[in-house]
Amino acid sequence: MTSVQVDKQHDGNEAADQAPEEGYQRGLGNRQIQMIAIGGAIGTGLFLGAGKAISMAGPSIILAYAIVGLVIFFIMRALGELLMYRPVSGSFSEYAREFLGPFVGFVTGWTYWLFWVVTGITEVTAAATYVQYWNKGIPQWAAALVFTVALFGINLISVKIFGELEFWFSMVKVTAIVGMILIGLGVITLGFSNAGDTASFTNLWSHGGFFPKGIGGTLMTLQIVMFAFLAVELVGVTAGEATDPKKVLPKAINTVPWRIGLFYIGALIIILSVVSWTVFKPGVSPFVAAFQQIGLPAGAGIVNFVVLTAALSSANSGMYSTGRMLRDLALNGQGPKFFTKLSKNGLPTWGTGVSVAMMLFGVYINYQWPGDAFNYVVSFATISGMWAWIVILASQLRYRAKANRGELPESEFKAPGSPYTSIFALAFIAMVIVMMGADPDARISLYAAPLWALILGVGYLCIKRRDAGLAAGTAAQEAPGEDAKS
């Protein structure tokens, strides 16, 4: 359902809670949606990126994850309110178009598409490098090609297969984290393994205090922590294919607090208790460091397998979301019309295929020129992902204002504390963006954003001119007939 159709629906006083029909098959059940939601919150940002954050902030990184986790919950509840108002696969792009204007919807759709293309490139490339842990003789490009083709094939079969694969990908990540927590608790309380003599909860404050790098060090990690949560909003894209979105999606969103509490905060508390924060270094997984300290020889291999799974899960999600986003853009006249086509199984194969082709080209570029130029492109993922969160919050504020005035039906899943929680989340994201400008490693993403905005602005003007030309041509064709009748 496009934004134009929504306007007609409201004008015609149709049932507000009627599920939109977009041509997709509703093949994602409660079990799969729940695990997609969990998997979206657990990625390489936790398994690998947390090492750099720990080295920058020490034990206070736990507080950073807790604060950002609260902001993420506000964002997800804002998205949930919109989803219960109108569950569509275009999700926040469609809401931006309805509440913030067609240009913002255009920017959001294409930006989120680019976000997942870039993320897919990096994750498939990363997965190929992880394979070399077991067999260095496998060329990186060959492994990346095999992974990309295999995931593309899975995305062409049915949405049920996609959901099932994501279920098992997420299960591996969840099992690994729960296992690490249980082993760590055993080391701390029972004192077994090589780390038994030094493992203690006192490690959280006995090496320079809880803030060994000061408050400033903790603040500078917020952008890293925010990056770790990117893709948590993916559950919103599944709305058009969930079997019972009004029942399943609220359950998935309401699990965000305990997911963050267990998988992020709980895991970090245990890891930093088993191993002093001074041991961690950027580029080294905190899970690997903890397993090595405990003395489990298979630990590094286990974590490498889990990180491989996380990378493939992210790439799989990217292929899923890009096809849906391109089709949503095309349905609203903001993308090529052939993206609207669905396969017999109700899958947007054209959009997914073009996106996968872009991913393969990116893998080739990374293989040929793995230097700074490619890293600059990758750094854009952070700012483009946060743009989606900004749009979700802004759209929810506009929707709530209209609903309060009686112009739109009330959502069955209101965001608690809104509008204050949404305003707080927007202010927090703005603060993180400003802080990114103070970090030389992250600043490049802020440079890339205006360039991308310029490209989108030109593209939108071209579309407006095309539409104006089509309208003028139609008027010219109708004019002679009207004169003849008169």
TrEMBL record:
Membrane topology term: Multi-pass membrane protein
PROSITE patterns to which the protein is assigned, alphabetical: AMINO_ACID_PERMEASE_1
Region (Disordered) location: 1-21
InterPro entries: AA-permease/SLC12A_dom, Amino_acid_permease_CS
Keyword Transport tagged: yes
All residue ranges annotated as the Amino acid permease/ SLC12A domain in the record: 33-466
This protein's GO CC annotations: plasma membrane
Compartment(s) of residence: Cell membrane
Cited Pfam families: AA_permease (PF00324)
Protein's UniProt name: Amino acid permease
Organism: Streptomyces sioyaensis
Organismal lineage: Bacteria, Bacillati, Actinomycetota, Actinomycetes, Kitasatosporales
